Amino acid sequence: MKLLAVIGSALVLTGCTTINGVLETWSSKNDAKREYQVRTAWVRQTTVKDNLGFRKINRMTPVLAGELVIQGNGLDGIVAYERESGKQKWRLNIPNGAEPSAALIRDRLFVGASDGNFYSIEASTGQVQWTFPTKAENLSTPLLDEGIVYFLAGNNVFYALDAATGRQLWLYSRQDTSQFSIRGGSQAALHNGTIYVGFTDGSLVALNAKNGSAVWEVQLNNNKRFRDIDATPVIDGNQIYIAGYDDKLYSVSADKGEVLWRIDGGGYSAVTLAGDKLFFPTTNGEVWALKKANGEKLWSYKVKDGIATQVKTYKGSLVFGESQGRLQFLDMNSGAVLGGMEPGRGILSSPQVDEKANRVYFISGEANLYAIEAGWTKKPYFTE
């Protein structure tokens, strides 16, 4: 049985007003000359029909492929739009949709779907190149390296496939005897020929990338109810940062699997590194800024509605979605709110950032794809 946990309460740090559809916000009383504006450039419904039944989970991070933005939903498939205008270019119908995020290399999109298949798709046209049957729903983002695609299927089987043909190279399987598991799956990370991936039994495993043999494994999450390690391992030098659901954030040595430090506070998303800091969304509804070296907390932000998606950096700020609320922008140094917008029914997908175009893309809980423009502007009424 798969469950998705959502929690939350609130803290509003700035004032805001809406004028002609533009949400204008001020970061502090001292910032008299500028305002942070967030507005919708365009929005598109990604499903063929309105979803009038039970709520589906939409959490694929939009993929930027040349002039296209490609988005999957949890209901009926994957759609590509022009990034600038939002005009639909192609649609690939997939029963029950594609829930996890996808990986792109050149003109090939790789993604697992809820119909029990893994897909290789031509990104420019939406033509399927090959499929591989996993006989289970697929919930984790694939990893691509040197012509090999690695991914974890929903039945705790980790695959390595030839990216050109879909031929299986090797697999690694683990059994999990627990009755409950969080709906999700860890994306693998690769470092110096070793694959690192988390499993639902609470373990982090290092595998030989060539043959799938285990190099080491360490049991991290020992919770009696949810032991999942669904977060993506993030590697920095010899340190791996990874969280257990409702558990702890760990720093683990990449060479030996030894725990270097841990702090209380579980998560299901990857941490985000920026300089000497890391940013971490917890399962108790907070976003933390920590010192990368030892996990010392610098500031925390309490999410108003639910829990946060993975945090992305955007022009000196942080952006993330709230599972039951808004797209939120924070100041990276202080955690103060800069601005945001309310899409309806929350956000479970980590946003995609395009800094050159001053845009952020994300899919909402209603399966609507948004193109958002955000940034600092001079207040129109300010005079020297």
From TrEMBL:
It comes from Bdellovibrio reynosensis. Coiled coil: none annotated. Signal peptide: none annotated. Residues 77-301 form the Pyrrolo-quinoline quinone repeat domain. This is PQQ-binding-like beta-propeller repeat protein.
